[in-house]
Amino acid sequence: MDIINWNDFEKVELRVGTIVEVADFPEARKPAYKVKVDFGELGTKQSSAQITKHYTKDELVGRQILGVVNFPKKQIANFMSEFLVTGLADENGDIVLAAVDKPVPNGSKLI
Fold first, then answer.
1. pLDDT tens-digit map of 17-68
2. pLDDT value at residue 111
3. Which domains are present in the chain?
4. Lower CB density within 10 Å: C or N end of the chain?
5. pTM score, two decimals?
6. Rounded CA gap, 97 and 100, in Å?
7. Which of 36, 42, 33, 44 is nearest to 13 (CA)?
8. For the chain, how far is it from start to end, CA to CA, in angstroms?
9. Cα torsion at 92, 94, 98, 100 (round to 10°)?
10. Is 93 exposed, middle or buried (0-12, 13-18, 19+ CB in 10 A)?
11. Distance CA 105, CA 77 (A)
12. DSSP per residue over 3-52, as a string?
């Protein structure tokens, strides 16, 4: 494990946002959704997320998640991802979202 210092951690913009739209992403190599997330003052950003095993599109809308918003944009198939959806792999390698357990304002930074 690499040890980082506090200044390194402060560079990561982990922000809370609310999922406002979810669509299928059939062009992705692995099953995924396209998600649009409202990050408050940072605006709405889109990303792909390999979360189809544990979540339906309907149950994701309105859910708050954590995203890394200061990575460069990344093209995935024919789609431009603007942030990284955070999650953890379960025992089968399927992704479970990292999320907050109580509502907080969109755009709040993890501190």
1. 999 999 999 999 999 999 999 999 999 999 999 999 999 999 999 999 999 9
2. 87
3. 15-97 (2.40.50.140)
4. N
5. 0.94
6. 10
7. 42
8. 21
9. -90
10. exposed
11. 32
12. ---HHHHHHS-EEEEEEEEEEE-TTSSS--EEEEEE-GGG-EEEEEE--T
